[in-house]
């Protein structure tokens, strides 16, 4: 079938993207779903820093590629061996498909699936296939989803069925921002009621972490960013204290205000300075969780004596240490009960044709979560 999609031909084009136009809206051919695959009509897709990091070249991927990994849609067709989905099902895409058989999957850690990670790095679906083409050229899939398109063929392992009453523009956020942000708080850190938390970086993932900390019953929540509007939003979402990241005394102030340091610090920005702050502001015996994806060559210098003598814990968190079939429905139920007001993270809605302008807003830090509405009503 013919689809319309946002294609990245070359990484590293400079901002502003409204001028350099790294994403071209093209007509492509989408092959039918193979065994274990599903054809989804994409309804809404969020713009995430993981997409931006491919555009700017920080996360190298095979080109050309149809981007987009945070999305919701409706099943239109299933391939063979897909007994758990049917046409008409509403679904959320999860950008790490899991095979269910490798060691991490067997340990209950599907976010670390080895075949899933290999397929994502190669630009294929979990099966190793590519279903996107145009004339004689084959196009790569982004994280098994390629959701900046009117339709996508994905592995059934990339999908979670959801309540059809959930608006699609909100549903999309549960596939990445909410899984990663809330999951880092409740799954990776296992934040306890009354504990204090620091969240550095207030994009969609960071603000979702604020929501997660509030839901977990954190006693004090410090939110740090360079953007004053995002700091104000974090405060309105439940952060008790806000601080501009430009303040050279930020870590010292947080330690003073929290009585020696917070229990858990979260880096949601994916930058060495953010991770350093999240480490420096944690108390003795506390935990630092790094959930923001940084460039491959970024490093964090940690004094080993403090790691040992203070018995600190430094942990990574990928997709919020999630189990998608468990966590997506749970977080959606929490949203529907008013516990996770995810809708407040949406800072704009746009058409697919305006996607380059949307990434300019993400690049300059003025947007939280923009959502592409794929089919105008």
Q: What summary fits the major beta sheet?
A: 7 strands, mixed
> What's the N-to-C terminus distance?
21 Å
Uncertain spans, ≥5 residues at pLDDT below 50? none
Number of strands: 18
From the helix content, strand content and strand pairing, which structural class follows? alpha/beta
Average pLDDT number = 97
The third-level CATH topology of the largest domain is Quinone Oxidoreductase, Chain A, domain 1
Q: What proportion of the residues form beta strands (DSSP E)?
A: 25-35%
Shape: globular
| Rg, alpha carbons | 20 Å
Q: What is the CATH superfamily of the largest domain?
A: Medium-chain alcohol dehydrogenases, catalytic domain
Q: Can you tell me the CATH architecture of the largest domain?
A: Alpha-Beta Complex
What is the domain tally?
2
Written overview of the protein:
- The protein is α/β, with parallel strands linked by helices and 377 residues long.
- It has 2 domains: 2-175 and 341-373, Alpha-Beta Complex (Quinone Oxidoreductase, Chain A, domain 1); 181-317, Rossmann fold (3-Layer(aba) Sandwich).
- Helices cover 28% and strands 27% of the residues.
- It has helices spanning 17-20, 49-55, 103-106, 114-122, 168-171, 177-188, 204-215, 228-237, 250-257, 272-280, 304-309, 324-336, 355-363; strands at residues 2-8, 23-30, 37-46, 65-66, 70-78, 90-93, 132-134, 137-141, 151-155, 159-161, 196-200, 220-225, 241-244, 262-267, 282-290, 313-316, 346-350, 369-373.
- The two termini are 21 Å apart.
